[in-house]
């Protein structure tokens, strides 16, 4: 089935300046540049151009930029791996909490600023709308705000104090630098706009799979508010989670392992995901195509064996990055079905061991047979969809807000019920209820979302990041956590491109 995201991506290829220019350059359509009116078709073209950026966070700008990997490398779940420490050295420095202004994975900066620029164009188009129904205009404007918030929230989490703009920029295409708290306020404004007034549907059908929903905006608001630790809004977020739960629009898949293969794409549990397709990306074209490189990146090198944990025979080899830390299997209880769906283990001798090898690999997005029929550049064009928001997160957000932060229960929900729902699916016949304590809720999030790029951000917002300090000589991982490392250094190349009143100020500690 042709999903919505491919349809919009195809439309976006017509009439837009390509990405990769100055990161603060906004590219309006000709009619908008002249102050002209925007028809529904023009607005949709701008919206689709913004959606297309979702396809670029594994390889674009001639860099590997998987948001999952970039997030998890700083956690205590995986190592960097690959050929050696110098293979993608900027990723090794990231994993060692030692990124510098000149050596860091800066591709995400360009990707998400391109997203901001395109989302701005979409919003500007809605403000110049003609002959568009009130309902259509409300939905399209809310989609533009959601997408802008999604792109900016990643810039905010990685860099904190960043340039921000909502209008077309005149030369020299610079914008003022906001503080992290100011960016938070902008995010909340966009997300409240997207959520309020039922502009977006709570869910969509198969023909619109991949399109933003009210539930997706609520989930993004939850991540932003909880990362900011804005207790004044916790009750709002819990009310949003309760609304999603009680809407009946989403439910947990019966089997955890069913979520990750092709048949699990846009399943009943999926609130928002990116629809990758096995075509179009190429080493020589930094901003095109629909596929993802993540499966090749994280799969063991020259694999010729079957997964020992799940018995799955469909996994194939890749480059051997992101090996799973050896202690991860022990975080799961006996009988927890999430282990086999989250971690692959291959027999010694069935793959080529690489740097920081543990014998364990990330399974959810691993390379599989027949998930890539690209006629060229196979490693860039896997079709594994990126699951961004799942209903399980809705339940565990609610459990955390009530069980850890003391928010009053709402609409019949309790922290215990929410935690039990997630554990029942994971444990099946082995299910035993455990108290909805802080320790148990934190552990359940780690088990449920392993390999989905959430662990590092959870540790930071909980104030638990000190446990990232380590000296593990066996795996060449020696690092020290300091609070300023919450943010990466702003790329020196971007600082050098600004001047005068718009001169970027480096983050503290770098």
Q: Can you walk me through this structure?
A:
The protein has a domain at 1-65 and 106-200: Serine Threonine Protein Phosphatase 5, Tetratricopeptide repeat. The protein has helices at 4-12, 30-33, 40-52, 67-72, 89-95, 107-127, 134-159, 180-195, 214-228, 234-247, 294-298, 338-342, 391-403, 415-427, 438-448, 455-462, 492-496, and strands at residues 59-60, 63-64, 270-274, 343-345, 360-362, 386-390, 470-472, 477-479. Helix content is 37%, strand content 5%. It has 17 helices and eight strands. The strands form four sheets. A two-stranded antiparallel ribbon has the order 1-2. A two-stranded antiparallel sheet has the order 3-6. It has a two-stranded antiparallel sheet with strand order 4-5. It is mostly helical. Mean pLDDT is 93; it is low at 1-35. The chain is globular and about 65 Å long. A hairpin with a 4-residue loop joins strand 7 (470-472) and strand 8 (477-479). Keywords: Cell outer membrane, Membrane, Signal. Belongs to the SusD family. It is found in: Cell outer membrane. Residues 350-510 form the RagB/SusD domain.
CATH class of the domain at 1-65 and 106-200: Mainly Alpha
Instruction: Please tell me what the overall shape is.
Output: globular
* Proportion of strand residues: 5-15%
Number of helices: 17
Distance between the termini: 48 Å
Portion in helices: 25-40%
CATH architecture group name of the domain at 1-65 and 106-200: Alpha Horseshoe
Mind describing the biggest β-sheet? 2 strands, antiparallel
Secondary-structure element order, N to C? HHHEEHHHHHHHEHHEEEHHHHEEH
Mean pLDDT reading: 93
Instruction: Quickly give the structural class.
Output: mainly alpha
Low-confidence stretches: 1-35
- Please name the CATH topology of the domain at 1-65 and 106-200: Serine Threonine Protein Phosphatase 5, Tetratricopeptide repeat
Subcellular location: Cell outer membrane
GO cellular component, one term: cell outer membrane
Protein name: Putative outer membrane starch-binding protein
Main location: membrane
